[in-house]
Amino acid sequence: MMPDKSMRKSIHFYKMSGSGNDFIMIDNRSNVLKGLPVKRLTQKLCRRGLSVGADGLILIEKSTKADFKWRYLNADGEEASFCGNGARCAAYFAVLQKIAKPALTFETLRGIISARVKKNSVRVSMMSPERLELGTNIFLNSRKWEGNFMVMGVPHWVHFSRDIDEINVPETGPKVRYHPRFLPEGTNANFVDILTERELRIRTYERGVEAETLACGTGAVASVLVGRLLYKMTSPVTVYPKGDIPLKVHFKETGGEFSDIYLEGDARVIFEGVLAENAWEY
Fold this sequence. Notes:
Blueprint: E1 11-18, E2 21-27, H1 38-45, E3 56-61, E4 68-74, H2 84-96, E5 103-108, E6 111-118, E7 121-125, E8 130-133, E9 138-140, E10 143-145, E11 148-152, E12 154-160, H3 169-177, E13 188-196, E14 199-206, E15 211-213, H4 217-231, E16 237-240, E17 247-254, E18 257-266, E19 268-275
Parallel strand pairs: 2-3, 4-5, 12-13, 14-16
Antiparallel strand pairs: 1-2, 1-19, 3-4, 5-6, 6-7, 7-18, 8-11, 9-10, 11-12, 13-14, 14-15, 16-17, 17-18
């Protein structure tokens, strides 16, 4: 249950987008959400049609280790360890609000992330990939789907195909996300078409959002790195997500080991406002 009216307060927020991933941004450095159940609040605010609507909620908080600390919660209310496009929006927001300078760092569940903001383009450092499993094939409805698995902050399964426009991602995505091979965490599902050694297209079903999204930063990076190992893709790689606002992935690779991984792309403020009580009712 949400708190009664005596506990409710005016909450200022920003709606932001990073290459099509959209987020609700709240400056929580003064603890404006004190007394509010953040998980439930996130679920309510992220509902499209009934509230602000978003892929997730980002809270900016104080840090003793970096310019600020963030908390990222997916639309389902679960806190995620990382989100690439959300990280870029958080960095952009921090510079706009003079919380940090254009070259900045912030604290996440995956450690300290660095970022550089130039106009409305933001480049963030990415963690090293973990649990790389090439040839992670699965069966769905008696059909074999070839894929590869990698944790890029969060888990990703990557399937390469020339006909990604023909794949029913809203139907296939959940079957991959909840496939027994990836339980109990589940996985994000990426469907990728390599255009050239420096370009690819991608469609992503996101865990926690439980839908196909217009972009996924960590999915873009995971797909590029797997593409490097299997198809010798060359840095930097331009990634065209469903929303068609491109991302760019930079990396170095030596003997199958990756370093200097960065995600770069668009970040923008869509609008700002004050949440009314109806935003978290029903």
